[in-house]
Automatic annotation (TrEMBL):
The lineage of its organism: Bacteria, Bacillati, Bacillota, Bacilli, Bacillales. It is a multi-pass membrane protein. Keywords: Cell membrane, Membrane, Transmembrane, Transmembrane helix. Belongs to the chromate ion transporter (CHR) (TC 2.A.51) family. The keyword Signal does not apply. It comes from Psychrobacillus mangrovi. It is found in: Cell membrane. This is Chromate efflux transporter. Its main location: membrane.
Length: 385
């Protein structure tokens, strides 16, 4: 088991140091590392985990990483997976917070190169996942319809409704087909642990704000704020930003400086909590903010996974999941355009870098970390020229 924990730490830390581009790109990086390279799970189980985490509030890509850690090494494996993926960006943002001033400039070429490589990573992930999750004309049509709907209704609630609608379509289209063997989910904990986890989640969500008036502590107030935000936000890091801006009492300039820094570092955007916590209450505040922000994700994933195999094996659920998995492809396709492509590709030379990095990934099969480095160098060169 010790070697397993080391493997999880190495893999997740590598992703934490190289996963630029937001949650959509993270899904591509995760698939490359855990499905393609390490063979820890196959595309079907990976798609199931992605679909499950899309339904849960909180940072979806972090929850996918936690889930894979739980499958590989139990609860300790989930914690190690989260630490490896999250702490590099937390540390970088805490360091930045120590030196932050009223303004911050992140308009450099190598950062632009890191944004550009996300386009190639997401496109590469789309191609690979489409072959197994939307292999026929019907599911491709569902994926395209979901992509269009996502672009026209760019809200977290809209995305959830699209996934539900795709599941309903999948149910009616595939309910009479033979049931496939559900991907095996082997866990070191059971349903009792899952029920306890859900119970703790709801107790904290209800009691923290109720007891807040009795605790005159900045740390308690922070824990309540970040736990609540991490519990109720759907749609990923970009959705959490306006919620945090309303809840955290710091100047807009300082907040936006942190937002720019969070865009520039790898890992989940939710690690902005570390920057805000550092600004508000120093190093203890940073760690409290991060712990509170991600605790709901742990509780929700641990609470849901033990029941997933039973739910997943039902004929109706499998039929619905065919639609849901196609929807995941569609949502990823929409994300490839907005925000990944629209925020990264500003001119012809940017698109030239996209074509080069995409070719290195798909044709020459370069590891993503090398492609990231090449893209950063090309971006810096274009900035100088």
């Amino acid at each position: 088991m010790k070697n397993t924990y080391i493997d999880i730490l190495i893999a997740s830390t590598k992703l934490g140091l190289t996963s630029f581009g937001g949650p959509s790109a993270h899904i591509g990086y995760f698939r490359e590392e855990y499905v393609q390279k390490r063979k820890w799970l196959d595309d079907k189980l990976y798609a199931d985990i992605v679909a499950l985490c899309q339904f849960l509030p909180g940072p979806a890509s972090s929850q996918v990483g936690i889930s894979i850690g739980l499958l590989r090494g139990g609860i300790a494996g989930g914690i190690i997976s989260w630490l490896g993926f999250t702490m590099p960006s937390v540390i970088l943002l805490m360091i930045f917070a120590l030196f932050v001033s009223s303004t911050g400039s992140f308009d450099s070429g190598w950062i632009q190169g890191l944004k550009i490589v996300a386009v190639a990573v997401v496109a590469h992930a789309l191609l690979g996942m489409q072959k197994s999750l939307a292999p026929d004309r019907l599911r491709i049509s569902i994926a395209i319809a979901c992509a269009i709907s996502t672009l026209l209704i760019p809200t977290a609630i809209g995305q959830i409704c699209i996934i539900i609608a795709a599941g309903v379509f999948g149910y009616f289209l595939y309910k009479n087909e033979e049931v496939e063997n559900a991907p095996e989910i082997s866990l070191t904990f059971g349903k009792k642990t899952g029920i306890i986890s859900w119970t703790i989640f709801f107790i904290l969500l209800v009691l923290l704000p109720v007891l807040k008036p009795f605790f005159n502590s900045v740390y308690y107030s922070m824990f309540d704020t970040y736990y609540r935000v991490g519990s109720i936000v759907f749609g990923g890091g970009h959705v959490v930003l306006p919620m945090l801006q309303r809840e955290v009492e710091i100047s807009p300039d300082v907040f936006l400086a942190g937002y720019g820094a969070a865009q520039a570092v790898p890992g989940p955007l939710f690690t902005l909590a570390g920057y805000l916590g550092q600004i508000t209450a120093g190093m203890p505040g940073a760690f409290i903010a991060i712990f509170a922000m991600f605790l709901p994700s742990f509780l929700l994933v641990i609470g849901t996974l033990p029941f997933w195999t039973v739910i997943r094996s039902k004929r109706g659920i499998q039929a619905a999941l065919k639609g849901v998995n196609a929807a995941v492809i569609g949502i990823l396709l929409a994300a490839l355009y907005d925000p990944v492509f629209t925020s990264a590709v500003n001119n012809t030379m940017d698109f030239v870098i996209v074509l080069n990095t995409f070719t290195l990934l798909t044709v020459y099969k370069w590891p993503p970390i090398y492609v990231v480095i090449v893209s950063a160098i090309l971006g810096a060169l274009m900035h100088i020229i």
